[in-house]
């Protein structure tokens, strides 16, 4: 299977997602610490590191959702925008060429902003670097996944998305382990190394991937806001209900998942009593099982269907989170996170292919991918804010990150029952 030309191209594309996942692991692990720390921290040589900004959990939650807020407004528009782009590089690659270097620059600048009891200019510089990264990252993500859909026939899209997610999991593991070691050596190193790897991934994608030359550019009118909005109105009537239900299901399961990423480092320090550099290592157990089951999840979906596979994952993850809420013990949490990674593979690998395969058209894959990312980013924006408020109301009890997840997973499970579209198009088998 991996020798198919389509999946070989997906492998090179997935390097972009690998590097992006590394960037987000570094961002989600250490930026909350920068924001919340209010007392001196000491390294192995007893030297004082920079202070944090001393923000509350609620304000940290707000700032940690800025990337999702930017993505919510940018990613849905980037799909139809790239559908209408025609250059010698294709529809999708121009956005990667422009925005990946900008994202890498912003990431590298984040740890350089002065922190602690310093003038407000340090916080302004910190936020400027953070915003540069999150805006650039939001701009190229949808074209990357639309490129995957362009080079992959319908029956292989769960396999391809499994490969993409496998590579993202590999990136997460590398970032957790390498990031922890680099952070102990010098705080900015994880940010700088990952930024360099993003540029290397871009070079390999440009070298190895060419978009199919026979794809039709969707409605090659002038690229205006009205034209992009029209692309949503032009979705066929029979696709709107299943697309809406799928988007709702994705929104609900993401609403229960994202707070774990946003607050797990603080949970590890404040509830489990772990050193800050080791919180990522504990969370990496989920990434390990996610890697192992990412591709098998696509294979299972080919046998029993994408919807049933996702529903099985939702049940398993809900049970895992309930047990985690009542047993905040490090050894138990490691095992539960491993089971959660398996469950997340069953869910996440098949969500995007279901939305892409609501339609048989190849001219609007970017628009349909935009629907998926609108749902995920809206959930990622709302989830951490809600959990940040709950954490503060509970006296900064970071165990609350496991409280509401099962409720939203159950609602997502129910929403999927109304979906009759999204399985692989059998007539396109190759």
Highlighted features:
mainly alpha, 2 strands, globular, 430 residues, two-stranded antiparallel sheet
Question: What average pLDDT do the residues reach?
Answer: 81
Helicity, in percent? Answer: over 70%
Shape: globular
Secondary structure class reads mainly alpha
**Assembly state:** single chain
The count of β-strands is 2
Radius of gyration, whole Å: 21 Å
Q: Please trace the helix and strand order, writing H or E for each element.
A: HEEHHHHHHHHHHHHH
N-to-C terminal Cα separation, in Å? 12 Å
Largest sheet composition: 2 strands, antiparallel
**Biggest sheet strand line-up:** 1-2
What is the count of DSSP helices, taking H or I runs of 4+ residues? 14
Poorly predicted tracts of residues = 39-49, 220-225
């Amino acid at each position: 299977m991996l020798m198919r030309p389509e999946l070989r191209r997906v492998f090179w594309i997935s390097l972009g997602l690998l590097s992006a996942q590394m960037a987000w692991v570094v961002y989600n692990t250490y930026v909350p610490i920068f924001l919340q720390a209010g007392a001196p921290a000491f390294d192995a040589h007893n030297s004082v590191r920079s202070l944090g900004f001393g923000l509350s959990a609620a304000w940290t939650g707000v700032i940690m959702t800025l990337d999702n807020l930017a993505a919510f407004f940018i990613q849905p528009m980037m799909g139809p925008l790239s559908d209408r782009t025609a250059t010698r590089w294709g529809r999708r690659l121009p956005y990667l060429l422009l925005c990946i270097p900008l994202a890498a620059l912003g990431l590298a600048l984040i740890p350089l902003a002065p922190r602690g009891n310093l003038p407000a200019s340090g916080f302004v510089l910190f936020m400027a670097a953070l915003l540069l990264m999150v805006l650039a990252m939001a701009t190229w993500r949808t074209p990357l996944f639309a490129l995957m859909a362009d080079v992959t026939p319908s029956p292989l899209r769960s396999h391809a998305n499994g490969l993409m997610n496998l590579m993202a999991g590999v990136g997460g593991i590398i970032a957790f382990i390498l990031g922890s070691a680099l952070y102990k050596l010098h705080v900015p190193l994880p940010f700088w190394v990952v930024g360099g790897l993003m540029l290397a991934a871009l070079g390999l994608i440009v070298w190895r991937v060419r978009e199919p030359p026979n794809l039709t550019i969707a409605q090659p009118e002038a690229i205006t806001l009205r034209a992009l909005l029209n692309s949503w109105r032009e979705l066929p009537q029979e696709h709107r209900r299943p697309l809406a239900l799928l988007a709702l299901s994705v929104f609900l399961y993401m609403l229960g998942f994202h707070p774990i990423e946003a607050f797990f480092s603080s949970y590890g320090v404040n509830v489990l009593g772990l050193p800050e550099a080791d919180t990522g290592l504990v969370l990496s157990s989920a990434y390990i099982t996610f890697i192992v089951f990412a591709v098998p999840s696509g294979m299972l979906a080919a046998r029993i269907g994408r919807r049933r596979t996702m529903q099985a994952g939702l049940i398993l993850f809900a049970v895992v989170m309930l047990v985690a809420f009542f047993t905040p013990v490090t050894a138990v949490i490691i095992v539960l996170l491993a089971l959660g990674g398996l469950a997340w593979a069953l869910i996440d690998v098949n969500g995007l292919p279901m939305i892409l395969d609501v339609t048989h058209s190849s001219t609007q894959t970017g628009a349909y991918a935009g629907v998926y990312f609108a749902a995920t980013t809206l959930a990622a924006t709302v989830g951490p804010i809600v959990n940040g408020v709950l954490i503060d109301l509970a006296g900064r009890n970071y165990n609350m990150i496991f409280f509401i997840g099962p409720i939203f997973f159950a609602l997502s499970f129910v929403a999927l029952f109304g979906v009759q579209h999204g399985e692989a198009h059998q007539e396109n088998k190759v």
